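Now for today's protein.

===
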Amino acid sequence: DSSILVEQTRYGTLLSEPICTENLTPWLSLLPSSRQKDGIASLLFHPTYLFDKAYNSMTLHFDSGNARKKSEAEEDEVVVVELSQTLTVLSHEQRSNWSFGNFFGRTAPIRPSPLSLSSRVLVEKNSHPR
């Protein structure tokens, strides 16, 4: 019956799996404009800068919304699919001249991805010594 929506949740994890270009390449290919190296993908152009840090974590989160009608007058249903990707990097750098460009190994300005609805880069700098 096509009117029944089956919801399934799948969860997977790779414990102690090192992040390397073998794992990063498929993850990057899911980013909008990854081939043009726009947006967030442009920050990951030199992955060795990220893999040299104290901690790395990559996540994918897929969320498919319920089928719903486009409007009350229409019969067609739309399935909404959202993909969220998170890359977490922890560094214990004690340099006073820390910069965004040095952290990612990038000096050129970042161009926004024309395909992405939104992108965020969150940087938390702790000035307290360990």
Remarks:
- Residues 40 and 121 are 8 Å apart (CA to CA).
